[in-house]
Amino acid sequence: MRKNLVAGNWKMNTTYQDGLALVSEITNMVQDEVTGSDVEVVICPPFPFLAAIGKQLPENSRFHLGAQNCSQKESGAYTGEVSARMLQSVGCEYVILGHSERRQYFREDNELLSQKLKAALATGLKPIFCVGESLETREADDTFKFISQQLQEGLFHLSNEEFDQVVIAYEPIWAIGTGKTATSAQAQEVHAYIREQIAQAYDAEAALNTTILYGGSANAQNARELFSQPDVDGGLIGGASLKSRDFTDIIKSF
Ligand code: PGA
């Protein structure tokens, strides 16, 4: 079901100790300051901290635990990999898949990502599936075509029931970690397009019910404007999720 959601993607940052301190600041601030809003919050720390941070999240609250990646394999001799089942067993409910950094630095393509999606969904994890164009693609006026291809190849092979579990994050690569945010109009335009594509691939109801997040240099200053767009349901936050004050202010932006 469509909801307001803010996910913090810590990427490869913090130590165990700093991570625990950060999450305790965030949960305290949010519990004190965020009232009268049903926004859900997903915290996505690095793998080694997941279990401990999950235990620090207040039970039956707006807080949920997410991972930043998972293996497409179920189990076995895959040195260094982390399976969806492992993530689920330490309390993860969500997993980010298809982040542009994974696509770019670890050569994850739509084919591999569709296997990862299947693995996550088979275990009951909710994927946060990322799409987004490079600056080159945007300047060539190919944004819609590119996003459509990512959706078709990466996501739209899922059944209706599987697709129901998916959150989509639109993250223009040129806006990630650059301080250059998409304007709210640019974000809205692509979010509306994504919803249209969902309606075509599934149906109008699926399109209406899908949570679509914006990501890319979202911060406490621009979140309110971005989240006020009709097709923007929240944010996937990198840099600003590492600062409790900023992250809480973003969560308060609804
Ligand atoms: P950023 O990262 O907020 O630091 O731009 C967003 C993301 O990569 O998910």
Q: Could you provide a short overview of the structure?
A:
With 254 residues, the chain is α/β, with parallel strands linked by helices. It contains 12 helices and 8 strands.
Task: Produce the secondary structure layout.
Elements: E1 5-9, H1 16-33, E2 40-44, H2 50-56, E3 63-67, H3 84-89, E4 94-97, H4 100-105, H5 110-123, E5 126-131, H6 135-139, H7 143-154, H8 160-163, E6 167-170, H9 184-201, H10 204-209, E7 212-215, H11 223-227, E8 234-237, H12 244-251
Parallel strand pairs: 1-2, 1-8, 2-3, 3-4, 4-5, 5-6, 6-7, 7-8
Helix pairs in contact: 1-12, 7-9
The structure holds 2-phosphoglycolic acid (PGA).
Would you give an account of this structure?
The protein has 254 residues and is an alpha/beta fold. The protein has a single domain (5-252), classed as TIM Barrel (Alpha-Beta Barrel). It is built from 12 helices and 8 strands. Strands 1-2-3-4-5-6-7-8 form an 8-stranded parallel β-barrel, surrounded by 5 helices. The chain is globular. 2-phosphoglycolic acid binds next to strand 8.
Identify the bound ligands.
Answer: 2-phosphoglycolic acid
The CATH superfamily appears as Aldolase class I
Multimeric state? single chain
Query: In CATH, what is the class?
Result: Alpha Beta
Number of helices: 12
GO biological process, one term: glyceraldehyde-3-phosphate biosynthetic process
Subunit structure: Homodimer.
Family: Belongs to the triosephosphate isomerase family.
Enzyme class: isomerase
